[in-house]
């Protein structure tokens, strides 16, 4: 029997069933439901991980992780990540640069979701996952017609 009493397990960690769903490519209405700032794999920069949830349609409730390189040794990667964050801030009506991510949570946006393939580090097998390639405003539904124009 394994003794886990001194392993520092987080009592507030979210439950994970171990799998994920790859949703079809397309445009989805989403909100950011969580985020965290984490070091890059190389440890030389920082990524803002956004937990983005679909709020309409057949895939309502599904989440996608979006990772923005906001501090990176590569000036191009950093510019792309900061540009994406600025786009999100503008869509959420939050001044850029933000002092926190509080104003980004729960604000509806449209996300363009793509499918990308990658090679598994463990099995060498080709796998698929989702990636958000861009964010746009939610388009308002057209106003209902009030009938024929008056005066005609």
**What is the end-to-end distance?**
85 Å
Oligomer: single chain
Strand order of the largest sheet: 3-2-1-4-5
Task: List unreliable stretches of 5+ residues.
Answer: 147-152
Overall geometric form: globular
Structure description:
The protein is mainly beta and 152 residues long. It has one domain (26-136): Beta Barrel (OB fold (Dihydrolipoamide Acetyltransferase, E2P)). 11% of the residues lie in helices and 36% in strands. The model is unreliable at 147-152 (pLDDT under 50).
Concise overview:
The chain is mainly beta and 152 residues long.
Could you name the key traits of this structure?
11% helix, mainly beta, single chain, disordered C terminus, 5-stranded antiparallel β-sheet, OB fold (Dihydrolipoamide Acetyltransferase, E2P), globular, 5 strands, 152 residues
Structural topology:
Layout: E1 26-39, E2 46-54, E3 63-71, H1 75-91, E4 109-119, E5 126-136
Antiparallel strand pairs: 1-2, 1-4, 2-3, 4-5
